Amino acid sequence: MFVDRLLAALVHLRHGATHGVLACWFGVARSTVTRAIGEVRPLLAARGCTIASGLQLRTLAEVIEHLGASGKTGIIDGTEVRVRRPAAGRKDRDKFISGKSKQNAVKSMVVTDADGRLLFCSPTRPGSCADITHARQLGLVKLLANGPAVEILADAGYQGLGAQTGGREVTPPHRKFKKNAPDWYEEMHERQRKAHSSRRIRVEHGIAHLKNWRALTRHHGRREHTSDTIRAIAGLLPHQESITRSDQRK
Predict the structure, then answer these.
(1) Residues 225 and 162 placed together within one structural domain of the fold
(2) Which helix (H) or strand (E) holds 107?
(3) How far apart are CA 10 and CA 92, in angstroms?
(4) Is 34 helix (H, G, I), strand (E, B) or coil?
(5) What is the tally of structural domains in the chain?
(6) Are the C-beta atoms of 168 and 140 separated by less than 8 Å?
(7) What pTM was computed for the model?
(8) Do 123 and 216 belong together in one domain?
(9) I need a labelling partner for 17 at 20 to 30 A (CA). Which of 61, 66, 111, 160 fits?
(10) Same domain, yes or no, for 109 and 174?
(11) 99-109: pLDDT as tens digits
């Protein structure tokens, strides 16, 4: 039954239960569970992020259009998921090594609104891909330059996009003095940096909610499945949060 396949996929994503454990639970062969999860996971990933009843955002273009129509600020950041290292002798073995964590990982670009509500998770790229390169590959520059007037907050990893988007992408203030900076400049720069950081902290909360799902603590499966996994969880997260809020009201 489809309900059983869906339940197996949800338990696997939320709690990280292995296919063997799920096979014992449902009383079926391990290959049956693997096939069921492989069928359900892309369906969940294709649903997008549910913002309101009848409103689901599936692409980055839809996210930018939604932010422009609602007048809200967007926040972007990259997040990494550890994966297994490619086998020795593979020509692409080193491209998954992240320059940030020095571990084998894939990364995804996450977009939230100013309240920390998850709007979009991109398909994953190898960990060696820089955040700014990933954003350009996703078409963010063109969407901001040619789309509605939207303010997008980002960290220092995206510095340079502001000039290409007409100032719609906002990063921390660039440091003008590298050495022997005056005291007044140090105070001003630190104040501006903290103000920007406090505005974009919500995206860190959104990423933290994503990482609460055990499937993203560390991905032990095939690397090509990580895109569907993180996008499926991003689509399920709003439903989990709505249920949590309703339970807290009781």
Answers:
(1) yes
(2) strand 105-113
(3) 31
(4) helix
(5) 2
(6) no
(7) 0.88
(8) yes
(9) 111
(10) yes
(11) 878 889 999 99
